Amino acid sequence: MAAYTFIEVTKIFSFMLLNLDTIPSHYKNYVKLIEEPDLLQAMRISGHRMQELVHSIPVAKTDFAYAPGKWTVCELLCHVVDAERIFAYRALRFARNDKTELPGFDENLYAQHTNAAGRSLQKIADEMAHLRTSTIDLFESFSPEMLSRKGIASGKESSVTAIGFVIAGHETHHRRILQERYLTAK
User: Fold this and answer.
1) Global model pTM greater than 0.85
2) CB distance 31 to 169 below 8 Å
3) Structural element, H or E, at residue 102
4) Quick one: pLDDT band at residue 24, thresholds 50, 70, 90?
5) Distance of alpha carbon 143 from alpha carbon 121, whole angstroms
6) What is the CATH number of domain 24-182?
């Protein structure tokens, strides 16, 4: 197996165009939100933008839900954290050439058990920042061959690279929901 330097991998990331046909249908709209073709840069940008938004949220809004039955601000942020962890785990398994089919997860069940109400917005923001740094470190460690590997999760095939773009796109999707439905509401 060929050894690649960080700079070589970064160049490969920069020129890698993601074919939307390789993205599971339920994730395509997330990936379409990403304008940056460089996966690592896309993760950095989405993480930075989410951090800026989270740090602008008034403490009085942390328990706000824009409609009955919708998540609170903190529950939504904890969902983003949970999803990134699960997506990164899938990427790790696929990158390591693990052919075991991985199950899905019930995001609503997870949201009920995050202890979001018992956590401060600052602690959640810190966790998000640490997690994104760890996720970027993970993706930087993958060789081009590992990035192209595929696996099955939730009954759908996906590549390691596609999962990386889903991570950035999922976060971007929820950042927009926060802006449009939570922070503009009276």
Assistant:
1) yes
2) yes
3) none
4) confident
5) 36
6) 1.20.120.450
